[in-house]
Amino acid sequence: MAAIAVTAAVAIAVPPAMAQRDPAYEAARSGGLIGEQPDGYLGFVSSPTPAVRDIVSDINIKRKAAYTSGAPAGSTVEQFAFITGCNLILKTRPGEKYKTPDGRWLTRDSGPPERDSRCP
User: Fold this and answer.
1) CA pseudo-torsion sign 84, 90, 91, 93
2) Chain Cα centroid distance, residue 38
3) Domain residues of the chain, as ranges?
4) pLDDT tens per residue, range 14-35
5) What is the pTM assigned to this prediction?
């Protein structure tokens, strides 16, 4: 599990870094329109505009490609995506949205986020 977590952190580092340079992505994220999900993908907190939908779709396609190419032997793409989702939720900043294991969207505060009990 630890090897998956380390590999997940490395494999997913490039797509979010690229997205964070996009002001529209930053505005949607800081505005609470989108957030991190436990499955390793971005989700919509509320009904998105077509532009926000396109941004999230592009990022999620890149994440899927990173998960597919980076999943270590012995794990599935879904397991790899889940571990990465755990890490991405942990890295959210105060004010950003994330989805809890029970499906609620919460706004990150200064405390730790609610994560799945299977997260490393």
Assistant:
1) positive
2) 7
3) 2-107
4) 455 445 568 999 999 999 999 9
5) 0.82
What pLDDT, in 10s, does the model give residues 71-110? 999 999 999 999 999 999 999 999 999 999 999 999 999 9
Tokens of 27: 């505005």
Compute the distance between CA of residue 65 and CA of residue 45 in angstroms, rounded to an integer.
Answer: 23
Q: What is the DSSP string of the chain?
A: -HHHHHHHHHHTSHHHHHHTT-HHHHHHHHTTSEEE-TTSSEEESSPPPHHHHHHHHHHHHHHHHHHHHHPPTTS-HHHHHHHHHHHHHHTPPTT-EEE-TTS-EEE--SSPPP--TT--
